[in-house]
Amino acid sequence: MQTANIQTIATQPFDDQRPGTSGLRKKVDIFQQPHYLENFVQAIFDTQPELAGGLLILGGDGRFHNDVAIATILRMAAANGVARVMVGQHGYLSTPAVSHLIRKYHAQGGIILSASHNPGGPQGDFGIKFNIANGGPAPETVTEAIYTATRSITRYRRLSDAAPPIDQCGAFQLGGMRVEIIDPVADYAELMTRLFDFDAMREWIASGHQLRFDAMHAITGPYARHLFVDLLGTPEEWILNATPLPDFGGGHPDPNLKHAAKLVNLTKGDQGVDFAAASDGDGDRNMILGRDCFVTPSDSLAILTANAALAPGYREGARGVARSMPTSQAVDRVAERLGIPHYETPTGWKYFGNLLDAGLITFCGEESFGTGSDHVREKDGLWAVLFWLNLLAASGNSVADLLKAHWREYGRNYYTRHDYEGIDSELAGQLMEDLRARLGQLPGQRFDERTVRWADDFAYTDPVDASRSTHQGLRIGFDDGARIVLRLSGTGTQGATLRLYLEKLETNPDEVTRDTQEVMQPLIQIADQLAEIRSRTGRQAPDVIT
Ligand code: VG1
Ligand code: CO
User: Fold this and answer.
1) What residue ranges in 28-122 does DSSP mark as E strands?
2) Strand-by-strand arrangement of the 363-366 sheet
3) DSSP per-residue letters across 177-188
4) Closest Cα to atom 3, ligand 1: which residue?
5) Going by C-beta distance under 8 Å and a sequence separation of 6 or more, which residues neighbour residue 515?
6) pLDDT score recorded for residue 22
């Protein structure tokens, strides 16, 4: 019997293992402390009893410590009675691929090792996230139960045997558990070929259009190579930074205008490529660019919804849509026109799970470069990229044409997010507290030519299970439809990150192609006046503007 090889190791709780917006994220050296990862993983097994005797999907974005963590988790899974684990070759699996595998093989859950868009390497960040049997991120009730278990943990279990290497596909036995090492790309790619028109996309490429995809030395490299080079016939060189590296080549795998600046340059001017896109560390984010133009994630969600029928997987259009609260209201306008319901959820993909499972929505998205649909239960970077490519190929229009046509038809929700990173946590908390305390007095107050119409601290009641989430961000709405939102990040690992989200609706078709930062200037001033960001933080400008 294998039980002879099971070790019970005594441990003590760490007090900082409450998952944030998307799993537990810390500096690598914190995860390297003895028992740190083990405690959290044991808390998962202790609170998710269906994993015993069940199937677990396991993989990560290839960042530093991925391999060590996978070996540890395999030994612990075997000792905790998991019957079978499917793990990506080399320990690689993108977040959307894990979600798909859980659903396809009816797994009881999945563990994803990633800190997403946060930098990697020995000095960088590491993270771990548990996904439930629907393929989606664990809801708050589950993450809170895991956190509670970490507060009183006294022991964890592991197999005394070492975990064998996972560099070749195949299967082996680890104690009483079967380990299957699978091709990380195959199942996911097969799903994509069912959703999108690969013939039309191949033709678009063969007829001379140019595209580039930047994998940022993170997980999407192998996926993009297979999808674009093998299946769509692009040259190999069109996939940039295609090899996953433990430190992401020293880069910051966050696909935005700042961190993917080189890619953005390739789209500039007459020689600019027709289409460019990037994804993040774990493959769930996307950035969409056309020649001399950038599609905000909020607009992307609206445009995909409006043009859904151009993709074979969505011929019937959308049943409903959802966006996170700070995401612009562009998609709401499309939903209203289509006569379908739209929902506003707190930040974080876990809040879309119930709506997707209940069949209430087809598409959902976040302003933070996240877009997805009911095909999995995570946001999906390459899915969004292929969707856009499908739109270009099927419509014959350029990215800029699609964007302008959309704004003229629906109006434009000018939108920008300003991030102030690494500010003192106490100071940031106080800033939010003080503004929160003043929200009640704001309605009716005038700022230049605008008057505050309403202000609140966003709370959400899930329409499916009635669970309630409070303190999800401060919202201030003006009489002209403009909106200011402030919240603190729940994914950072150093100090606090203050996010300021600004939105202004323009319905005059002659005014929809102006420069965003220029248009937003008056609103930026008002936000600063309201929250005293500059005077309190001493910062003159945000660290990142998206
Ligand atoms: C950020 C984004 C949020 C996203 C989360 C996870 O959270 O704002 O929209 O869901 O990251 O993204 P926060 O709390 O820092 O604002 V990631 O790609 O894990 O993939
Ligand atoms: Co991510």
Assistant:
1) 55-60, 84-92, 109-113
2) 342-345, 321-324, 363-366, 370-373
3) EEEEEE-TTHHH
4) 348
5) none
6) 86
Q: In angstroms, rounded to a whole number, what is the distance separating the alpha carbons of residues 398 and 145?
A: 48
Radius of gyration of the chain, Cα coordinates, nearest whole angstrom: 23
Query: Hey, is 339 helix, strand or coil?
Result: coil
Phi, psi values for residue 332, rounded to 5°: -60, -40
Residue 20 is classified by DSSP as B
- Structure tokens that stand for 376 in this block: 């999995």
Ligand 1 atom, smallest distance to 349 CA: 10
Q: Which residues of 209-242 are buried (b: 16+ CB within 10 A; e: fewer)?
A: bbbbbbbbbbbbbbbbbbbbbeebebeeebbbbb
490 within ligand 1 shell (Cβ under 6 A): yes
| Residue of 22, 94, 114, 116 marked active site | 116
Q: Nearest Cα to 455, choosing from 485, 429, 431, 433?
A: 485
Distance between Cα 74 and ligand 1 center (Å): 27
Q: Could you give the percent of the chain with pLDDT greater than 90? A: 91
Which of these, 398, 397, 402, 394, lies nearest to 197 by C-alpha position?
Answer: 394
Cα(538)–Cα(540) distance, integer angstroms: 6
User: Which residues of the chain, if any, have pLDDT below 70?
Assistant: 1-4
Let me know if 116 is a catalytic residue.
yes
Q: Which ligand is nearest to the CA of 137?
A: 1
Our answer on whether the CB atom of 280 is closer than 6 Å to any ligand 1 atom is yes
Q: Give the pLDDT of residue 76.
A: 98
**How far is the centre of ligand 2, averaged over its atoms, from the C-alpha of 20 (Å)?**
13
**In angstroms, how far is the first alpha carbon of the chain from the final one?**
57
The answer to whether the CB of 345 falls within 8 A of the CB of 325 is yes
Domains of the chain are: 6-184 (3.40.120.10), 188-410 (3.40.120.10), 412-545 (3.30.310.50)
Bridge-based pairing of strands 211-214 and 474-478 is unpaired
What integer pLDDT is reported at residue 491 of this predicted model?
77
> In the prediction, which pLDDT does 2 show?
44
- HEC string of 208-249 equals CCCEEEECCCCCHHHHHHHHHHHHCCCCHHHEECCCCCCCHH
- Rounded Cα–Cα distance for residues 518 and 160 (Å): 62
3-class DSSP state for residue 462? coil
Tell me the torsion sign for CA atoms 348, 350, 356, 360: negative
Ligand 1 pocket check for 366: Cβ under 6 Å: yes
